[in-house]
């Protein structure tokens, strides 16, 4: 066999093999069907089905940055230790927060199964010290993480970490930033609650609560139960197009005292909403109810001075982006709080709020024997304080 014959034979073999392969069918695998996230509109906007389940999930939250200035007693100001001589200087109050929220919903044979969580991450570099003005906020400069809400609800039954129905059912005291210049109740607690909605505007709640410890910033009374007997809150509400009438009553199991609030909300015109709320509480068994607030015990449900207090205010919507909010509060201890702000939506989801706050500290009895008797540390009886805050908030 010569070289020419060998080359021709090899070429023929290659052509034959190529032709055989070309005759084979090319098999392309079918793509797997993609399981895209499906929108769930049963519980409102923002929900989607968790793939492979019938549970709807929504994820949201906000990022907030506060800048405050003015007198410390207004809640807006701050003091900082002088780096040269160790004194106490007035300075800015700064605070940053990231809040992460989740909601779930699912229909079951026993009703709607819901959950809600909110976790807050705070950067507390607000310069508050324990200098010349006393212990303004001992824990104010420590970064914190708090689980503010974590509850499960099936039908009308709710269990878990919540805020007290004494506040959530009747409503917060207006749309101002500093709505507790005269406090209207403590908040954080574990709960076992039952909500009833008749569907005709009438609703009610009964709540067994554990309360929270007192004597710490943001906690207005010694409230954690000290036995197996829980605090008890009950409330009723009637809602119509013109507004609502609400009442709540609470039993403090520590002191065996009772406090309650009634509230009227009205909407006299489409862009104006007003409210007035009054509170009354007994204090026969409260220990040291008028000395060095909040370290003195005023109970979980009556944090104001004296037996009674009143709050009023409203919101006026100037246009689709701008609203004006105001609140005035006063109690039997002659403590007066006034707060007002303008909230402006720069773009959807981003709001800037500018607020001014004023407080005047009252007194009950002889200050020489009772000490400071007001709701703000850093000012004395009869003094006043004014401050302001600028808040940037991106909600999503």
TrEMBL record:
Q: Which GO terms describe its molecular function?
A: porin activity
Q: Which InterPro entries match?
A: Porin_alphabac
- Its domain of life reads Bacteria
Q: How does this protein lie in the membrane?
A: Multi-pass membrane protein
- Transmembrane helix in keyword set: no
Q: Name one Pfam family in it.
A: Porin_2
Q: Which GO terms describe its biological process?
A: monoatomic ion transport
Gene Ontology CC entries for this record: cell outer membrane; pore complex
Q: Which residues form the signal peptide?
A: 1-22
Q: Where located?
A: Cell outer membrane
> What does the UniProt keyword field contain?
Cell outer membrane, Ion transport, Membrane, Porin, Signal, Transmembrane, Transmembrane beta strand, Transport
Role noted for this protein: Forms passive diffusion pores that allow small molecular weight hydrophilic materials across the outer membrane.
Give the family from UniProt: Belongs to the alphaproteobacteria porin family.
Domain writeup: Consists of 16-stranded beta-barrel sheets, with large surface-exposed loops, that form a transmembrane pore at the center of each barrel. The pore is partially ocluded by a peptide loop that folds into the pore lumen.
Report the protein name in the record: Porin
Protein species of origin: Mesorhizobium neociceri
């Amino acid at each position: 066999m010569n070289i020419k014959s060998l080359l021709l034979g090899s070429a023929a073999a290659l052509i034959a093999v190529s032709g055989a392969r070309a005759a084979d069918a090319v098999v392309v695998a079918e793509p797997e069907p993609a399981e895209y996230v499906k929108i769930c509109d049963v519980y409102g906007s923002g929900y989607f089905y968790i793939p492979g389940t019938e549970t709807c999930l929504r994820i949201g939250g906000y990022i907030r940055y506060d800048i405050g200035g003015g007198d410390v007693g207004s809640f807006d100001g701050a003091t900082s230790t002088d780096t040269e001589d160790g004194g106490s200087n007035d300075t800015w109050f700064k605070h940053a927060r990231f809040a992460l929220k989740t909601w779930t919903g699912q229909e079951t044979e026993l009703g709607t199964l819901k959950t809600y969580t909110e976790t807050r991450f705070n950067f507390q570099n607000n310069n508050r010290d324990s200098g010349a003005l006393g212990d303004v906020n001992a824990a104010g400069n420590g970064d914190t993480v708090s689980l503010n809400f974590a509850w499960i609800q099936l039908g009308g039954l709710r269990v878990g970490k919540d805020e007290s129905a004494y506040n959530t059912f009747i409503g917060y005291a207006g749309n101002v930033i500093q709505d507790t210049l005269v406090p209207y109740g403590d908040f954080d607690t574990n709960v076992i609650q039952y909500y009833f909605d008749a569907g005709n505007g009438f609703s009610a709640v009964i709540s067994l609560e554990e309360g929270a410890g007192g004597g710490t910033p943001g906690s207005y009374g010694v409230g954690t139960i000290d036995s197996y007997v829980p605090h008890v809150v009950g409330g009723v509400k009637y809602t119509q197009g013109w507004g609502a009438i609400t009442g709540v009553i609470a039993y403090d199991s520590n002191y065996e005292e009772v406090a309650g609030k009634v509230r009227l909300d009205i909407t006299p015109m489409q862009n104006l909403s007003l409210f007035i709320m009054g509170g009354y509480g007994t204090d026969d068994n409260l220990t040291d109810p008028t000395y060095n607030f909040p370290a003195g015990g005023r109970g979980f449900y009556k944090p104001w001075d004296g037996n009674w207090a009143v709050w009023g205010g409203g919101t006026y919507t100037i246009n689709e982006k701008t609203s004006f909010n105001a609140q005035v509060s006063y109690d039997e201890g002659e403590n007066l709080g006034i707060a007002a702000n303008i909230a402006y939506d720069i773009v959807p989801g981003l709001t800037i709020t500018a607020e001014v706050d004023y407080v005047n500290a009252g007194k009950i009895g002889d200050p020489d024997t009772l000490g400071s008797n007001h709701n703000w540390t850093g000012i004395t009886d009869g003094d006043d304080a004014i401050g302001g805050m600028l808040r940037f908030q991106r909600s999503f």
